[in-house]
Each structure stands twice: as C-alpha cells, then as structure tokens.
Design a protein that fits this description.
Blueprint lengths: L2 H68 L3 H8 L15 H21 L2 H4 L2 H14 L7 E6 L4 E5 L2 E2 L11 H4 L3 E7 L4 E8 L3 H8 L1 H61 L1 H4 L2 H32 L7 E5 H16 L5 E6 L5 E5 H17 L6 E9 L2 E8 L6 H6 L21 H11 L3 E7 L3 E8 L5
Parallel strand pairs: 7-9
Antiparallel strand pairs: 1-2, 1-5, 2-3, 4-5, 6-8, 9-10, 10-12, 11-12
Organism: Neolewinella antarctica
GO molecular function: protein histidine kinase activity
Keywords: Kinase, Membrane, Phosphoprotein, Transferase, Transmembrane, Transmembrane helix, Two-component regulatory system
C-alpha cells in the first residue's frame, strides 16, 4: 500500500473520529442543559406549590373562624382564632343573626389583618412546611440534599432552616448566604404592597445530581469511542506493520535471489570448465573446480538451512537436544572459523575464554550456530580490517558470551528493530553486506528458548557489542 493511500485513510479516520467525539460532546452538553432546566423548574414548582399550601392553610383557618362567628358560635370562633378573636363582639350580644351576617365581612377582614400582623415565625407551621416540601421533592424526583429556609422580610433574618427554628444568633443572614443568594425562591403571604417573607431553597449537589442523570450515557459514549479509537489505532498499526513486513519480505526475496545467483553462476562456470577438453586432461584442474563446486554447494545449503530453521521456529517444531555444552570450547572453535575470513582482510579475532565453570545446559548445534551468526554479523558490518573480540565470563545468572567489534555501529532506531525478521541495518553507500536478515532473529529466538537474555551496546561509527547470557541449567 502506497504511503499516500495510508495517509489518506489515516486522515479520513481521524477526521471521522473527531467528528463523532464532537457530536457526542454536543449531545451530552445539550442533555446537561435540558436536565438542568428541568431540575430548576421542578424545584421552583415545589416551592410555589408549598407556598400556596401554606397560604391556603391560613385561609382555611380564617374561613373556619369566620364561619363559626357567622353561625353564632362565638365561643367556637374564639377558640379557633385564639387570641386574635377575643376582642371581637360575640354574636349573641349584638342583636342576633341579622347582625351576624352584616358583621361577617368586617370580621373576616379583621381576622386577615390580625393574621397578617403576626410575626412570620408564628404564621409558619414548620412541620407542615417540612412535610409538604419533602413530598414535593419526592414527587418531582429531586435527588440530593436540598437546603431550604424561611426568610423574614420585616426583620431581615431567617426564622427557620430545614424545618428547624433558628435562634436569634443563628438567624443572622451571614450564616445563610447560600440560601440568600439562591435563585430558587418564592414569596410568602403576598399583599398589595409587599410579602411577609420568602421560602428559599439551595441545592449544594445540583451539579453532581444533574451529571448523574447523564452518567450512564456518558460512560457508554466513552466506552464506544474508546473501542473505536482502539480499533483505529490497531488498524493503523497493522497497516504500517504489514507495509514494513512487505518491504522486508521483498528485500528478503531480492537478497535470497542474489545469494543463490552467485553460487549458481560459479557452479555453472566450474561445470563448464570441467567439461572443457583442456581441463579434463588435468586431474589437478578437475579437482580444483570440483572443490569450488562443493564449496558453493555448501554455501547454498547453509542459506537454505537458515530459512528452514526459521520455518521450524515459526511452527514451534524446534526440538532441543539438551546436553552439557562448554561455551569456552564453542567460542574457541567459532573464533578459528571466522578467523579464516577475517585475516585475509587484514583483521584479527581475539578469543578470551575467561568463564570457569563454562558449561551450560543447552543444544550444542544451536548454541554453536548462534555464536557463528554473531561473529559473521560482526565481520559483515566491520570495515576493511575487522577487529573482533569474543569472550566469556561468569555472572550470577550463568555464563555470559560477548562479541565485540569496532565496525559501523548502529543507530537507536536500528537497535530497536535489529532482531526483527528480515530487518537489515542500512549501510549507506556500502552494498557488499549480504544476508537475508534472519540471523539476529534466529539468535534472539535460540537465546529465549534456552532461557537466556541478549542485549546490545552500540554507537554509530564505534562498533557494537552483543552480550548473550545463558543459565547454567534449564528449568
């Protein structure tokens, strides 16, 4: 897939995801505003209904007193109205029923006036107020602790809060600024000129209550957006990984073609030479070309073996033949092998077998192949005169094998990907570094199946060190 196509897909998916997030944000914000408006209306309605009930209760008391007076039950009226009616004329003293009817409007007016003259704290039935408010809050499904209080306009102080009578000190408005500044209020006992007081409410947890109403939708939105985002990131990762894998496989095929082409050409040339009449008569020349054919055949066989080994690792078919392996012997033998390639280039190989004990439990074939791969890698990525040091030493976890070179070194990016299959370090203008990019992937796999560890220390232009540690025993 082309970079332009990947960029276009990434851009479209990013814009779409941001659009979904923006739309969800607007929907949630709109839902919050709607729920807040409903909450405000419900709380204000609860206050209005309670205020009307208080006024209706007082009007009922006045009506009962007036009706008792009208029916000639002066004593009953006096009892109902209490001290407010004790100075009013009794029905029997002022001329009978006709006088009662003519006096009724005046008596009701006097009752209303005397009720209005009472202190607000005496006009409010706190138990009735608390009961009606709690019922109204429950009916309106108003959750959370709602504070409420009654404010006396004449005395400029609060007379009760949450159904409790306030003392003179506790009525100080400074102690109830939350209620005083609240927008939830309704006037009590309105007259043509003013109101006797206010019924106020305040919701300290209003924000959290409203937020809880959309919490489930918010969590669901976040969950689905997270799933979409995760799938989006994973998709981009897979696309980039597949692109990288495709490029590495293409590079692998090109390298493999090149690796096989050279020995095939050499074998073909040697075969043609043997068939030449000038060569067939010379046994020395025949043996020379036959030796070349054998070497090139072995070279091809080694390359095929590497590919087959990785195929076995892919299918988990690797069976270790565990024996006691002396790593000092392994690096000495491997050093002799790589020295044959390094010395003709003017380089040197130093072997330092310092580990004692040096034996570990492992597969001899794979451990030897691992060390040879690392030495071959050090040789390939070194300048014209390779300087390679291979050593062993004991560490608390086992035996450590170090392969040090003074070659090209690696960048941080290369160190991150060096063990990836088919990955090969870029060598700039150098095009003589051959291989499939499988060697170090094989090294890491063999190290891990032996329960060991591997790390790299490298710097561009200063060479690299591969440090491999193997445990003494397999677990």
């Amino acid at each position: 897939m082309a970079k332009r196509t990947i960029f276009l897909i990434t851009t479209l998916m990013t814009v779409s995801l941001l659009g979904v997030i923006f739309l969800q944000y607007n929907l949630i914000r709109t839902a919050m505003n709607v729920n807040e408006q409903r909450y405000d209306e419900a709380l204000q309605d609860a206050l209005n209904n309670t205020a009307r009930d208080l006024e209706a209760k007082e009007a009922t008391e006045i009506n009962v007193s007036a009706n008792g007076y009208n029916s000639g039950m002066g004593k009953t009226a006096g009892i109902v109205a209490g001290d407010l009616t004790r100075d009013l004329p009794r029905p029997g003293l002022l001329g009978g029923k006709n006088l009662q009817l003519s006096e009724q409007p005046s008596y009701r007016l006097r009752l209303q006036t005397q009720y209005a003259a009472r202190p607000l704290v005496e006009r409010i039935d706190r138990e009735f107020l608390d009961r009606r408010l709690q019922t109204a809050f429950e009916n309106a499904d108003l959750k959370g602790d709602i504070e409420y209080g009654v404010y006396d306009v004449r005395n400029k102080e609060f007379v009760s809060r949450n159904g409790r009578l306030l003392s003179t000190i506790g009525a100080d408005t400074a102690r109830h600024l939350d209620l005083l500044r609240s927008s939830y209020r309704v006037s009590l006992y309105d007259t043509e000129t003013d109101a006797a007081g206010y019924l106020l409410a305040y919701s300290p947890r209003k924000g959290s209550v409203i937020f809880n109403t959309i919490l489930n939708n918010l969590l669901a939105s976040l969950l689905f957006i997270s799933i979409i985002l995760g799938c989006f990131v994973y998709t981009i990762y897979v696309i980039l990984f597949q692109k990288k894998l495709s490029e590495m496989k293409t590079d692998f095929i090109n390298n493999m073609t090149h690796e096989f082409k050279t020995p095939i050409a050499t074998i073909s040339l040697a075969t043609d030479s043997i068939m030449s009449p000038k060569v067939t008569g010379s046994p020395d020349k025949v043996m020379r070309f036959a030796h070349i054919i054998k070497q090139e055949n072995k070279r091809m066989n080694d390359q095929v073996e590497k590919v087959l080994q990785m195929a076995k690792l892919d299918k988990n078919r690797l069976n270790l033949n565990l024996t006691e392996v002396d790593l000092n012997d392994v690096i000495i033998e491997a050093g002799e092998y790589i020295r044959l390639q390094v010395e003709p280039r003017g380089g040197s190989v130093v072997v330092i077998p310092e580990a004692d004990p040096s034996s570990v439990e492992g597969d001899m074939t794979h451990l030897a192949s691992l060390v040879n791969n690392l030495l071959d890698n050090a040789n390939k990525y070194s300048p014209e005169a390779p300087q390679i040091v291979v050593s062993t030493r004991n560490v608390p976890t086992g035996v450590e094998v170090t392969i040090l070179d003074h070659g090209l070194g690696m960048s941080r990016e290369a160190r991150k990907n060096i063990f990836d299959r088919f990955y090969r370090v870029h060598t700039g203008d150098r095009h003589d570094v051959k291989g499939f990019g499988l060697g170090l992937s094989y090294v890491k796999t063999i190290t891990e199946v032996h329960g060991g560890s591997i790390r790299i220390e490298s710097e561009l232009g200063k060479g690299s060190s591969f440090i491999v540690t193997f445990p003494y025993e397999q677990r």
